[in-house]
Amino acid sequence: MNQAEKIMAEDSDWIEVGKVEDIPPLGARVVRTAEYDIAVFRTAEDKIFALRDKCPHKGGPLSQGIVHGDRVACPLHDWKIHLDSGDAVAPDEGCAARFPVKVEGGVIQLSLTPDEGCPNQ
Ligand code: FES
Predict the structure, then answer these.
(1) Which of 36, 48, 72, 109 could potentially form a cystine with 65 if both were Cys, beta carbons 3.0 to 4.6 Å apart?
(2) Which pTM value belongs to this model?
């Protein structure tokens, strides 16, 4: 059973994706599902965010970008994306779908249902 099949077999919409310290500060790890690659980011303040791993510009892998504050810079053309909303920083326009995350006992829980309102789903 591959990872995507394992995730589809989960009863719940929420899955565990590991501990906060499993993600390097200012880095990300990718959770692959049948529908999406989801980038789970860790900021310098140990805040955790999750966005679709697809830049709203031309689809660059946001998980390979650099986190600055609560933003990530796309590795392809350096658009900045707000981690808390998925919106591109003006003057660029567009959004990456945001996925709810929570941390319980140092373990990251990720919802596989993206928030409404972003067409990049
Ligand atoms: S693909 Fe991300 S900035 Fe162009």
Answers:
(1) 72
(2) 0.88
76 CA to middle of ligand 1, Å?
A: 5
From 54, 74, 80, 120, the mutation candidate for ligand 1 (largest count of ligand atoms within 8 A of CB) is 74
Strands 66-68 and 48-52, bridge-based pairing: unpaired
Instruction: Report how far residue 38's alpha carbon sits from residue 32's, in angstroms, rounded to the nearest whole number.
Output: 6
- Rounded CA-CA distance 28/62 in Å is 9
- Tell me: pLDDT of 12 over 80: no
Mean predicted confidence (pLDDT) in 93-117: 94
